Amino acid sequence: MRDNRWTWAALVLLAVVALLFFLNSRFPGVLADEDRKMRLIYGLTWLTLILGSVIVGWRGPAGLALKQALAWLAIALILVVTYSYREDFMDLGGTLAQRAMGELVPSQPVETAPGVVYLARDLSGHFAADALVNGTHVHFMVDTGATDVALTASDAERLGFDLSKLAYTVPYSTANGTIMAARVTLDEIDIAGIKVRNVKASVSRDGLGQSLLGMSFLNELRGFEFQGNRLVLRE
């Protein structure tokens, strides 16, 4: 019986690997984004370990163990894959799916009309935004108190900046004190089709835990306004 359980655990692992290859072929280039790749691998690794442990350690009938494992596998895979590939499902699912995802994942921008996008407030009370910066995914926290868009060192490196060649001469005040940052220019920031080009930004080597979407982006919009738990951006 236990040998059969090891077999089922191995089959679960193979199913997860097969799903990964299928998604990569269905959405080519998605796993080139390191952020999404790590989220997906992290989620699938934990999923495989948990389900494998349940199957191997199950004391009841093997058939019941298999049914329950498959049910939880299906639920968990839907959650992990939907979150990791949310941008691509938006392209396939249309407006209804986009709005539903916007409520489930507040950083997911939702287009309500051409040139109009809203962000939902997250559980911490802030507004976050998943954006494309020069074609690369960056997760921002919206900060109307920040003069410029501010990039963490890791996000700047993913965008191709050589941190050792930047001049950290500009002081910025943060909640943790004053930090020194380097001025850079971003070719384009795209939030659900709202695009701003030649955006002034800064890069900090330390002292910044989250990239900030500041006024150098927001001031280039036709307007933005807070409507309850939503932040509406207008191109």
TrEMBL record:
Record-linked SUPFAM superfamilies? Acid proteases
A biological process (GO) annotation for this entry? proteolysis
Q: Which residues cross the membrane?
A: 6-27, 39-58, 64-85
Sorted alphabetically, which InterPro entries does this protein's record hold?
Aspartic_peptidase_AS (IPR001969), Clan_AA_Asp_peptidase_C (IPR011969), Peptidase_aspartic_dom_sf (IPR021109), Retropepsin-like_bacterial (IPR034122)
Report keywords, A-Z: Hydrolase, Membrane, Protease, Transmembrane, Transmembrane helix
Give an example GO molecular function: aspartic-type endopeptidase activity
Q: Which Pfam families match?
A: gag-asp_proteas
Q: Where is the signal peptide?
A: none
The family database entries (Gene3D superfamilies) matched by this protein are listed as: Acid Proteases (2.40.70.10)
User: What does the record give as EC number?
Assistant: 3.4.23.-
Q: Which residues form a coiled coil?
A: none
**What PROSITE patterns does the database record attribute to this sequence?**
ASP_PROTEASE (PS00141)
Q: How is this protein named in the record?
A: TIGR02281 family clan AA aspartic protease
Species per Swiss-Prot/TrEMBL record? Parvibaculum sedimenti
Q: Which taxonomic lineage is given here?
A: Bacteria, Pseudomonadati, Pseudomonadota, Alphaproteobacteria, Hyphomicrobiales
